[in-house]
Amino acid sequence: MEAIAEVAERRIHKRFPAKDRALVSLRSDAYGMLLYHLIDISNGGLSFRYLGEDVLINGSSELSIVIEDNYYMTEIPVETVSDSPLVNSYIPFRRRGLRFGELSPMQKSQLNDFIMKYTE
């Protein structure tokens, strides 16, 4: 029970589940731009799901958020904080958690707008 309390205390920002059409775009040297389903987002970071053992990126430290084939936010600085398998899934999906780096005032405004419009 203590471990659960410790995890809850580390979270500074409330997470908001993303609507189905929200995607994360990451750049891969080998494959170009790759799209993944956004699971949730907060003012501090986001998580997305992917299929397989690892995301096919080579140390990408920036991402974009895509809605209905349009870039909503671009060049968002991030760093990976977690990567784990999703339980209760017949398909080997994984969940990667990312923390935002220093956001510009414009990116902060876009993030707040995104959370209001595209989360549940």
Task: Note down, in words, how this protein is organized.
With 120 residues, the chain is of the alpha+beta class. It has a single domain, classed as predicted glycosyltransferase like domains (Thrombin, subunit H, Beta Barrel). The chain is 19% helix and 47% strand. It contains 2 helices and 7 strands; from the N terminus they run H-E-E-E-E-E-E-E-H. The protein has helices spanning 2-10, 105-118; strands at residues 16-17, 22-28, 32-41, 45-51, 62-67, 70-85, 93-100. Strands 2-3-4-7-6-5 form a 6-stranded antiparallel barrel. The model is unreliable at 1-7 (pLDDT under 50).
Note the topology.
Blueprint: H1 2-10, E1 16-17, E2 22-28, E3 32-41, E4 45-51, E5 62-67, E6 70-85, E7 93-100, H2 105-118
CATH topology: Thrombin, subunit H
- Sheet/helix structural class: alpha+beta
Count every helix, treating DSSP H or I runs of 4 or more residues as helices.
2
Strand content: over 45%
Main sheet properties: 6 strands, antiparallel, barrel
Give the strand order of the largest sheet, numbering strands 1, 2, ... along the chain: 2-3-4-7-6-5
Intertermini distance: 28 Å
CATH class, named Mainly Beta
Provide the CATH superfamily.
predicted glycosyltransferase like domains
Q: Which sequence of SSEs, written as H and E, runs from N to C?
A: HEEEEEEEH
Computed CA radius of gyration, to the nearest angstrom: 14 Å
Q: What is the CATH architecture assignment?
A: Beta Barrel
Q: What's the structural domain tally?
A: 1
Low-confidence stretches: 1-7
